[in-house]
# Entry
Amino acid sequence: MSYCINPNCPKPDDPGNEKKKECVQCGSSLFLQGRYHVKKLLGGGGFGKTFLVDDGGKIKVLKVLLKNHPKAISLFQQEAQVLMSLRHDGIPEVEPDGYFTFFAKGSDEPLHCLVMEYIEGEDLQEWMKKRRHKAITEEEGVAWLKRMVEILDQVHQKNYFHRDIKPHNIMRRLNGSLVLIDFGTAREVSETYLVKVGQGQNVTGIVSPGYTAPEQMNGKAVPQSDFFALGRTFIYLLTGKPPTAFPENPRTGKLQWQKSSLEVSKEFVDIIDYMMALVPGKRPQNAQMILQCLTEMEETREKEADIEASRNKATNTGKKTNTQFNITVNLDQAAKKKAIIIGSSAIALLILAAIASQIYGLRRYHVFPTNPLMLIEGLSSEKLLRSIIKTGSAVRDISLSPNSKNIYSSSDRNINVYQVSDGKQLGWKTKNEHLSAITALGMHPNGNYLVSGSDDTNIIIWDNQLKLLDKLPNAHPGGVNVLAVSPSGSLFASGGNDKRVVLWGFNGKRILTLDHNETVTALAFNADGSILVTGTSNGVIKLWNLNTRVNKQITRLPAVINAIALTPDTQTLAIGDQSGNIKLWNLSNNQGGIVLKPGGSIKTLKFSDANTLLSGGDRITVWNWKTGQAEKTFVGHSQPVQSMVIRGNFLISASLDGTIKIWDFKSK
# Structure
C-alpha cells in the first residue's frame, strides 16, 4: 500500500498508488525527502495525522501537521527539538533530520513533518482495557515505576518536563518495557519560565482530568508536576480504576485510594502518596529521591526475609518424621494414581520453574517479567562474570585507577569509588559539587587527577581522593556530554550540547576550542595524543590534527554517533551509532569497511588489542573485527551498558541498571 499525505487529495489511499512514486490522483510524492515511503494512515484529528512509513525497510511513524497555525507549529517544532535532544530507549528516537517540511503538489503552504521510532505495542490505557482493567501486581508496579522515573530523570536532566503524563501517553512494548510518548506539550525549564512562575504569572496549561497536578491547573507547572501525574497514573495501574473514581479527604485534600489497593504494601502506597503531595515542595524534588525510596523499601524487605528464614531454620532444626506406607489397593488403582501423581508433579515443577525463573530474573537483572531468552543468555554468561557492584543508582560512566585497584563511578550528582578486589565502597565523598547528573569521567594516566563533566554545564578537576582542585564553570552551555584524556596526560578534551570541543590543561586553563556544527556526542584520542576524532548527533565524524590544527570530515552516517574507538596503530576507526551499527573505517585510505550489527543501540566501544573490539549496549559483544565475527556475546545488565574499561583479561562494565560488573572476557 502507498498513501498520499496531501490533505487536498481526493483519494489518498487509492489502490493505484501501489508501487508508484507519485500519487495517481494529485501527483504528490509518495516518498517524502526521497526516503520515507508512506504506507498507511494510523489516525488523526483536525490539526494533524499519523502515518506508518517505510525507511529503507525499517518501519517508523510519521506525524504530519495539517494546519499552519503559529501556536501549533511552535508546539510541533518543540516536540521535535525535545525528542532529538533525548537519547534513551524509553523515549521514541528521532534522528537529527527527522523534522522537515513538505510541499504537496499544488500547495503553497508546507506540511510540517516529524519522523520518529515506531513503538510496537499499545498504550497503557488500551492495555488495561484489554485485560478488563485488572490491576497490576506490586512487583510489576515497582519495576514499572523505576522504569518511568529513570525515563523522567533523562527528561528533567535536559531541563524539560513532560506536562501530560497519563496512561494514554505511556506505551508498553511487546517485551513489556515502557516508553514515554507525546512530547508535544513538553516545556523547557528556562530561567525566564521559572521567573514567570515565581512572580505568579500563569503559563499556558495542559490539563488531563484526574492526572494533572493542582499547580499545573493554575498555570504554574514545575518539573515536580510530572511526579504528581505519574503517581496518579500508578493509582490507575494498581487499582484498575481512574483517579477520578476516588474521593478526596475534605480536610487534607489527599486522594482516598488506599482501600482499593489491599494487595499493595503500605510502604509502596506511601511512596505513591509522597509523589502526589498537594504542594510541589513536599514531593520528591528529583527522580533520584524516588529511586532511593524504592531502594530502601527493597533493602528493608530483603533484611526482613533473611530474619524470617533464620527463624524458620531454627524452628525446624532437630525435628524428625517417621512415615509408614500401607499399600491396600490393587495394582491397577496404584498405577492410575501413580500416573496422576507424576503428571501433577510435572505440571507443578514447570510452574515452580517459571516462578523461580522470574524471581531469579528480578533479583539478578532487576527486570519483571524477565524474558526467558535473556535468562538463558545470562546463565551462559555467568562463567565469565567475576563480581557485581551494586551502586544504587544509574551509572553513566566509570574510570579505573592506573593500578587497577579502584573504580570511579558517576552516580547522579556525585562520584563513588569502589575497590576492584571486593567491591567495597570507599569513604571519599564529592558532596554534590555538581548541580545535575554527572555524564562523563576521565582519569589522568598517573592516577593523580580525575575530571568530571555534568549536565549542569560545569567540569570539575579532582585529586584521586575526590578533593576538589578546580571548577570550570559553564564549560559547555547546555551540558557536557563526553570527556577524553590524552594518553600522555598533557590535556583532556570535552564535548557538549553547545556544538564545541574544548581542549583543557589539568591546571584548568582552556587551550583550544574546536567548533562543530552539531552536538558533540563522542571523542577519542589516538595513542600519542596528536589526533582527536569527534562524533556528533547528526552523524558527522571529524579527525583533528592537534599539531597542525587542521581538521577533515571523515564521513557522515545517518544516525547519532554514540561511541568511537581507534586501533593502537591509528589505522582503523570503529564508529557505533544509535541505530545499532558499528562501522569500521580505514583512516589510511579514508574508506569504509565491514559493518557489524550486534543488535540494539551502541553505547560504548573499546579495542582490547589489534584484532579484538568490544561493543556495549543491550549486551556486550567481543568481535574479531577484521573478520566481522562475534566471538562472544554475554548479558548481565537489565539496561544498556553505558561505559566499559579493559585491563588485561578483565572487562569492567557499567549500566543504567545501577550495577558495575567485572568479567573475564577472554575465558573460554
